[in-house]
Design a protein that fits this description.
Oligomer: single chain
Number of strands: 20
CATH superfamily of the domain at 1-88 and 160-241 and 340-384: FAD/NAD(P)-binding domain
Structural class: alpha+beta
Mean pLDDT: 93
Radius of gyration: 22 Å
CATH architecture of the domain at 1-88 and 160-241 and 340-384: 3-Layer(bba) Sandwich
Order of helices and strands: EHEHEHEEHHEHEEHEEEEEHEEEEHEEEH
């Protein structure tokens, strides 16, 4: 029986653990220095922008498509196994198109042209997906809460989704436990050790890891450790440089749904999300809004910038003025793991190692790409 150790229990690590738990003949152990969903997962808004993205082909699109498809049956599968209700918004994503001028960046202007979106719509239809382009009258009729000033229309993606990343991660952990996966929280990985006999002819193998609770040997080690991946890969002389990018978000309490209570999609525009909380679970009274994108200066220190968060709030009110009446219920921050000098995410074998697998550096798409990442890791281990 092959032993797989997964380092990290955010949504990526938890999804890998669950998907591998469905494979016979694997012993699976998950380690994390914290409780599950405490790092970037706990700060994510869970907006799954797949169909509406401008990724048209290749790996980037395949990952998105695979994940969107898997989520449709993964959520009910987990709810049945655990008895947990997972907030999963099936009412799609509505992208507001701003009215840009000649001073706007050329690539931004190009993205919002009607011709550009019509081309994307045709491509998605050929791939079996749906998109709709709405003019202002249709937008106002369906979503009266949206202010049409500075907006030229909207793109509606009925097959994209939004979910609660923390609730989902906890459900994945419980389901994986029921399938025999061992989780160890509050455990730090101190050292990764090579097999002494490894030569230049044969790829190196990681023999064991040393943790604060002792040594663990395994056949495969999966790094789903986000920002912690840099230290671990450095110990194996193959440093993967992952940098933090801070995000701040707000939970607003309005007390009632915006617009049509029967139609509550996630709304996005100008890189700001407005997410109704608990769609399908209860009455909508709160909205998540965010998130900022703040890069480190110097030694990876990123103090939250209140002005940037205030700016997010102003953009949200510009789109939906009624939210000016809401009270701020809470604010929170999270650090996204962004690979330096290469595209996100990093899903591959660590260079020179046959049994160290990387599932990290997802930056802003960890929740979106978790299922596809788990499939890729499974294929590396069992070949299918």
């Amino acid at each position: 029986m092959s032993h797989v150790v997964i380092i990290g229990c955010g949504i990526v690590g938890a999804t890998i653990a669950y998907e591998l738990s469905l494979v016979k003949g694997l012993k699976i152990t998950v380690l994390d220095k914290q409780e599950p969903a405490q790092a970037s997962t706990g700060a994510a808004l869970g907006v799954l922008m797949g169909v509406i993205s401008h990724k048209l082909k290749g790996k980037a699109w395949k990952l998105r498509q695979t994940s969107i498809q898997r989520y449709e049956n993964l959520i009910p599968e987990l709810e049945s196994l655990t008895g947990r209700k997972i907030p999963f918004n099936r009412q799609g994503i509505l992208l507001l198109l701003p009215n840009l001028d000649e001073n706007s960046a050329p690539e931004v202007n190009e993205q919002v042209t009607k011709e550009n979106w019509e081309k994307l719509l045709e491509i998605r239809q050929s791939q079996g997906w749906q998109l709709e382009i709405w003019d202002i009258p249709k937008l106002k009729n369906i979503c009266p809460q949206v202010d049409e000033n500075d907006i030229v229309g909207a793109v509606y993606s009925p097959q994209d989704r939004q979910l609660d990343p923390t609730v989902l991660t906890l459900a994945l952990v419980e389901a994986a436990q029921r399938n025999g996966v061992t989780f160890k929280f509050g455990v730090n990985v101190l050292e990764m050790s090579l097999i002494p006999e490894a030569t230049d002819v044969v790829a190196n193998l990681c023999q064991k890891i040393v943790t604060t609770q002792g040594e663990i040997t395994a056949d495969y080690f999966v790094m789903a450790s986000g920002l912690g991946s840099t230290v671990l890969t450095t110990q194996l002389n193959q440093k993967l440089d992952i940098r933090p990018v801070l995000g701040q978000a707000l939970q607003l309490h309005l007390g009632h749904p915006l617009g049509n209570s029967d139609f509550q999609p996630a709304i996005t525009g100008n890189d700001v999300h407005i997410v109704p909380c608990g769609v399908g679970v209860g009455t909508i009274t709160d909205y998540w809004v965010g998130a900022t994108v703040e890069f480190p200066s110097g030694e990876n220190e990123i103090p939250p910038d209140k002005e940037l968060l205030d700016g997010i709030f102003k953009k949200v009110i510009a789109f939906c003025p009624e939210l000016a009446e809401a009270t701020v219920k809470r604010t929170w921050t999270g650090l996204r793991p962004r690979p330096e000098g290469r595209p996100a995410p990093v899903i591959e074998k660590l260079a020179g190692y046959d049994n160290v697998l990387l599932a990290t550096g997802h930056y802003r798409n960890g929740v979106l790409l978790a299922p596809a990442t788990a499939y890729a890791i499974r294929e590396m281990i069992i070949g299918e």
